[in-house]
Amino acid sequence: MSRPNIVILGGGYGGMVTSKRLEKFLKAGEAKVTLINKHDYHYLTTQLHKIGAATAADRQIALSIPEIINPEKTNFIKAEVAAVDANKQEVHLVGGEKVPYDYLVIALGFEVATFGIPGIKENAFEIRSFRSSKAIYHHILKQFNLYKQDQDPSRLTFVVAGGGFTGIEMVGELVDAMPKLCKEHGVPFEQVKLVAVEAAPSVIPFFPKESIEYTTQFFEKHNVRLITSKKILECTPEEIRLENGENIPTRTVVWSCGVKGNTIIEKFGLPVEKGKIPVDPYLRVKNMKNIFSIGDNALFMKNEKSALPPTAQVALQQAPVCAKNIVAAIRDEALTTFEYHHKGSVASLGTRAAVGLVGSVRLSGLIGAFMKQVIEARYLFMLGGPALIFKQHFGVSHEPVKITAKQ
Ligand SMILES: Cc1cc2nc3c(=O)[nH]c(=O)nc-3n(C[C@H](O)[C@H](O)[C@H](O)COP(=O)(O)OP(=O)(O)OC[C@H]3O[C@@H](n4cnc5c(N)ncnc54)[C@H](O)[C@@H]3O)c2cc1C
Known about the structure:
This protein is 33% helix and 24% strand. It is of the alpha/beta class. The protein folds into two domains: 5-38 and 79-112 and 260-341, FAD/NAD(P)-binding domain, CATH 3.50.50.100; 115-257 and 343-381 and 395-407, 3-Layer(bba) Sandwich (FAD/NAD(P)-binding domain), CATH 3.50.50.100. Helix 1 (13-25) packs parallel to helix 9 (312-330). The longest helix has 30 residues, at 365-394. The protein is globular, with a radius of gyration of 22 Å. The structure holds flavin-adenine dinucleotide. Flavin-adenine dinucleotide binds at residues 10-15, 36-39, 45-46, 48-49, 80-81, 107-110, 127, 129, 165-166, 169, 262, 264, 295-296, 310-313, 315, 345.
């Protein structure tokens, strides 16, 4: 094979790090690398809740892909993937263009799971992409303006559904953002109601007891009404209906009750199990030698019964192994098996608090928030070294990001 074509689908955590590692591992002229992503920016998915509450500048969360990649080593195509033809070794883009590949990396991420609950898809907001998160912020401002006209209290009632990692991070961000947003837009802050609804008996049930208590107290301290052990049965544009019969009038529901693999993978003619692409220990799609899948759209079994969870941590550990294995395959060398090492998790509660567990050390409050910053900075370092950390903290542009692609 002369100069193989490596094509990476998705410029999220998995796709970006794979392309950066390939830039490093490949010798000059050894292969052609193409990265395809729906947008020309790489959004930091783990921080999207900050866009929903406008507590970060657009460019702190949406980084320009052309500025991160080395254009001499990686060709970037801004396009939406429509399908893959594994027999012809082609990627089909929306608009009809076809991109041939010899090696393919599928890293197209997640979609929000709504579990078929009536009205969620139509009426609730999702923290799924930069665009969907920005929509939350615009909707909050719209409700502020409408409240000034009709004083309907449901316009100032903001519900976050799901007390998992993403849900508590969204609540924490709203707690931080609301006083300032209300002041800026002339809305009485004391009329704002924040409500968190969780079907399980507590928030973040997979965290240590102390972290659950800290988060619950944080909610109490900031007047967030926490409803646990109650499922949402329906969401309309004007209210949510809970299983205990209570209806909460609200115009804003942020749904963060779980994710599933990107459903586009169903159009790829590849195996799909539990909504994801099953991969072997080398991260290759089962029974395929030249297609790899990583991150949230991949099903990697850590043992016979359970798969790795959809986290950035998993995607970030898989990407370097994926890049290494593609280079090894091109060179006809032995491939490396992927082993996951859980390093811990830290969930933010706004900018000044967080809860989590790193190794066996439990963190909360300011120290937790500091650790969260360290984790985020570490990722920037992985992507662009100290220069990117510096730029994102001190030289970030305050121009709004222009959203062109749908979703
Ligand atoms: C608010 C929030 C907080 C989180 N916090 C944490 C955390 O603290 N720690 C942690 O480990 N995990 C966290 N996660 C989970 C983590 O963000 C995901 O597991 C991670 O983003 C998965 O990486 P990925 O590369 O598989 O997909 P993504 O990062 O989602 O990237 C997928 C990319 O593919 C692109 N794409 C999708 N469809 C197409 C298409 N058809 N054509 C072209 N491009 C397409 C998307 O635009 C995106 O750029 C959080 C998630 C959310 C939503």
